[in-house]
Amino acid sequence: MLEWVDMSIMVAAIANLAILGASRLSFCIRAVALQGIALGFFTIFAHAEDFSIHIAILALMSMLMKGVVFPKLLFRNLIQTGVRHEMEPIVGYAASILSGIAMLAAALWISSRLPAQGLEASPVVLPVSLWIIFVGLFMIVARRKAITQVLGYLVLENGIFAFGVALVGGMPFLVEMGGLLDVFMAVFVMGIAIFHINREFEHMDTDRMAALKD
Question: What is the number of H-type helices and E-type strands within the chain?
């Protein structure tokens, strides 16, 4: 079962790299959805020996929310705003990929100094989980479009989820379900905010909001 754990987490890692190098927002949404689905399978494979109905519900809800509901909300925002690309990110795409490689190296270094209690037999899970967290934070600060920053928030949550499974062998059911509900409400509210920002200012560049004065 360990090879399936590694395979699912590596799919999430590939999606991570694709998100860093893509300018087309629809592609980024699909990549984040794929990452969420892969981490749902990761949860199942990681708990194959102690599988329970709680694990099944958690994995299925995670895949449903991150693979279907959130992408659908974000695609609706794309249609409403008419924005298709992140044209001028704060950090360019080539530099983003190089930064991603540097973040991966940092994740490998940090993970080598952390105890992997739950999945210590798999050396890739913990560094990839940390890398996903780093990339999520990077997307939030290195992109201009509000919708891309929402994607960064989702990537960050994916990384925290995977990190929890990797480090402690899983999170309490009610805690993680509450986390999913919080993420849903955040994406829903941010989607409404994106629509109104685009309607009022005819753009979604959050850095231009700093120019607004009372």
Answer: 8, 0
